[in-house]
Amino acid sequence: MKYFILFGPPGAGKGTQAGAMVEKYNLRHLSTGELLRAEIAAGTPLGIQAQALIDKGNLVPDEVVEEMIEAQFRASEGIDGFLLDGFPRTVAQAEVLGEMLTRRGEALTGVISIMIPDAMIYDRIRHRAEIEGRADDASDDIVRTRIATYHAKTEPLIGYYTARGEYHEVDGTGTIEDVRDRIFALLDRL
Ligand code: AP5
Ligand code: MG
Predict the structure, then answer these.
(1) In this structure, are residues 81 and 3 in contact, taking their beta carbons and an 8 Å threshold?
(2) What pLDDT sits at residue 52?
(3) Which parts of the chain are beta strand (E)?
(4) Which of 32, 44, 122, 123 suits 75 as a labelling partner, its CA being 20 to 30 A distant?
(5) Which CATH number fits domain 2-189: 3.30.950.30, 3.30.450.40, 1.10.760.10, 3.40.50.300?
(6) How far apart are CA 114 and CA 160, in angstroms?
(7) Is the entire prediction scored with pTM above 0.85?
(8) pLDDT digit string (tens) for 121-152?
(9) List of residues 6+ apart from 119 with CB closer than 8 A
(10) Per-residue model confidence (pLDDT) at position 156
(11) What distance in angstroms lies between residue 85's CA and the mean position of ligand 2's atoms?
């Protein structure tokens, strides 16, 4: 099985690019953000707990997303691997993911990072807010918190995975097709 991490700041295009990636490489897309939004929509206790954090732009506790991902790994029939979108998001989560993969006798295939400058994040999220109405897209203040959370808690993963030779970055600017072609060129090499 292949295990790819799709990495990048908020609004970088992870969800957008995941569709083409899973189709071409027969992967299952696992987005912790989407899984959490489904819990919120269903009004589960976990969703209620998570909503207050997500709507302010903060992360949910590591254990919550770690359990979600481990549960999703159990169903792997008919696919060649997993595309982890938005997980791991802290060094602690990265370490737990490493342990989960080791227990399964598996290893990380690589991290694909989509990188855009902070200023572009606001433009992209403002545009999506009009279409999708996500609560955490609703104001520049929340987006500012999400970007600050990314820099403080998630960005250290770049160093973590670079040190292991597993980090691969693509330029996330340009059209959706431009970025997709850069990602495909990278995946064909991995
Ligand atoms: P999550 O849903 O993962 O949000 P995120 O990481 O902030 O990323 P987004 O989904 O906002 O952006 P994206 O990169 O998918 O961009 P998209 O493709 O939509 O997480 C939400 C929250 O859940 C977190 O804040 C946290 O609270 C919690 N959470 C999730 N995972 C967690 C974890 N592991 N631990 C703890 N908490 C966790 O694109 C954005 C827009 O730009 C779209 O409108 C798109 O059409 C457009 N666009 C994309 N590419 C281009 C392009 N090339 N040109 C022009 N427009 C483009
Ligand atoms: Mg997304």
Answers:
(1) yes
(2) 95
(3) 2-7, 27-31, 81-85, 110-115, 167-171
(4) 44
(5) 3.40.50.300
(6) 16
(7) yes
(8) 999 999 999 999 999 999 999 999 999 999 99
(9) none
(10) 98
(11) 7
The answer to whether 134 is a known catalytic residue is: yes
CB 13 within 8 A of CB 176: yes
Token reading at 25? 């490489």
- pLDDT score at 120: 97
What angle, 0 to 180 degrees and rounded to 10, lies between the N-to-C axes of helices 140-149 and 118-132? 130
CB-defined site of ligand 1, < 6 Å: 8, 10-16, 31-33, 36, 53-54, 57-60, 65, 86-87, 89, 93, 124, 127-128, 136, 146, 175-176, 179
For residue 17, which ligand has an atom nearest its CA?
1
The two three-digit tokens of residue 137, written as one number: 């897209």
Residue 161: C-alpha distances to residues 35, 122, 169 (Å) = 24, 27, 11
Specify the amino acid at residue 106. E
* CB within 8 Å of 159: residues ≥ 6 apart: none
Is 128 annotated in the active site? yes
Burial of residue 82, with CB atoms counted within 10 A of its CB: 0-12 exposed, 13-18 middle, 19 or more buried: buried
| Closest by Cα among 26, 23, 37, 19 to 1 | 26
